[in-house]
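Onboarding guide, step 5: your first structure request.
Type a short instruction followed by the sequence, for example:

Predict the 3D structure of this protein.
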Amino acid sequence: MSRRKIRQDGKTSQETLLRLIALCEMVEKRGINPFEVEVAEALKTIRQMLLKWKSFEEFCLDAEAINRLSRVVKLQEEWVKHRSSTLYSDPELVKSKIEKLSKETLAKIFLKSWRPIISLEKVSAEKLKEALNYWVNLPAERFKLEATPIKPENLEEASKEELLRLKLLAEEEFMEILKNFWFELLDESGGEKISYWDFIYSESYEEFIVRAYLTSFLVSYGYADLELEAMENKIFLLPRKEPKKPSQKDSLSIAIPLNYKKWLELKGGRLKKGG
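The system replies with structure tokens like these:
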């Protein structure tokens, strides 16, 4: 009976140590008040159980409990230091002071400590005035643009060639250019369909754009038809023997992208063929 009682007491003692270790671990990890653990009482209990230990496992539990208690003692020391510093205020004392303050005083304290995460900024009239003065007082040499005075005595009549160059022709003159361009299409195509890109291509990028511009009018005014082969991604021009402006019902707008990259692509293809 006596030996059985000792084994039972030993099992109970192990459970006591395990509960003590768990309590110390909880205080350490969760930041609970370390003075919740009565260290002196726990050490007294461990000392009384020491004579009962027989196995290696029991001695390991004893050592672990002592180690955990030492950490709690360190936490108690830090707790006391923090509470004794000027940074710490007792929550109950703070609560009592707040309850005694008036609404006006609380509002003032709130405004002093308020740090909004969103704010509205705007330019004041004074800042606008400063900006204006800055630009007004800049030296003239800072600006590269200079006003060019108009001298009436130097005005002359523009020649037809200049009007052509500036694209300032009248309707009759434009139609004359368009007809000549149509004759060029008839001559180059032999009356058959011709590649759109081959026809508008020019060694000059500027001329390339002008030819594309005039070609669009050839189609719009009924001097030629535009054929698309979507599957092969090809565009053809088919000149008419007689111009016939398409009706509003039959008209169709087609967007053809023109840019410098496309011109370089066409130019590169011609160079390869020539090589």
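Each response can be followed by summary notes, for example: Residues 2-30 form the longest helix (29 residues).
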